[in-house]
Amino acid sequence: MEKHNIKLTSSEVANLWANYIGDSMSICVFKHFLAHVDDREINTILEHAMDLSKQHVETIKDIFQEEGIPVPKGFTDEDVNVKAPRLFEDPFYLYYVKNMTKGGLATYGAILPNVFRNDIREYFMSCLSSTMELYNETTELLLSKGLEIRSPNIPYPTTVEFVGKQNFLAGWFGDKRPLSGIEITHLYANIQTNKLGEALTLGLAQVAKQKDVKDYILRGLDMAKKHIERFSKHLKADSLAISMPWDQSVTTSTEPPYSEKLMMYHVGLLSSAGMGNYGVSMSLSPRRDLASLYGEMIGEVGLYAEDGANINIKYKWMERPPQAADRDELTQ
What we know:
Blueprint: H1 10-36, H2 40-67, H3 90-111, H4 118-144, H5 181-207, H6 211-237, H7 260-283, H8 288-314, H9 327-330
Helix pairs in contact: 1-2, 2-3, 2-4, 3-4, 3-5, 5-6, 5-7, 6-8, 7-8
């Protein structure tokens, strides 16, 4: 590996570290998926996803070793039992990869402007490019199998118009204007990500053994259902179609394929992604009732994520991320 004289910045170290933890988890998840998948085409998608995660972990390990930075423990074979019965049906595997690649595109897109050293920029650009490729392959397969869930249609505009009244922003009282295309996009997208969360938490709740972990995951399941209902209500008000799959994708297995540490991390990852999605949605939804809805949900998910972090700390499952020096302690 090429030697570098320029030290890594805080953003480079932190994002590489988080990327390593996330991909080490993905390797465990995909190992169990691959041990049970039946469909050959879906198997190919899972193998591609697994290969990318392994490449990421190895590249980051090399960078950290060159820099003298301890390689995180992350998740290992201790966190997966490939002999456990399948927990999800084949279609779930495709939806899972599709949603994880959507999250990856958003994450890598946010990281890239904040890294500077040439090799780190090249690494995250390659992550973005390969994730785009996997996203495209997964979408094509979902479409070919008739499983893809498209966002609702709206009439094509026939003229160019400008907003002339302040009630364009209204939403709490009186007449509400129809949803804009962008608002529909985010309502639809947040329904789909919450459907992933609903299916995943349903499966994990079935196999979790520790009471506080099971109760926490069930609380996330309940929250995902409520958020889906609230988003769907706005689409239904404008007579927009809502198509939601997944419900039959969870098996009846109660044998855990993953450690409770991994399950808690995975639910936390979904919570973080959800808050990010809601923040973007709020910024792009001019109607006041929608902005208020997203703000309320961000607070709700934030409290949920904090409670999850406390469980992880209780069981010593949370690795300490890279952080600034404690100058107060050093000066004592």
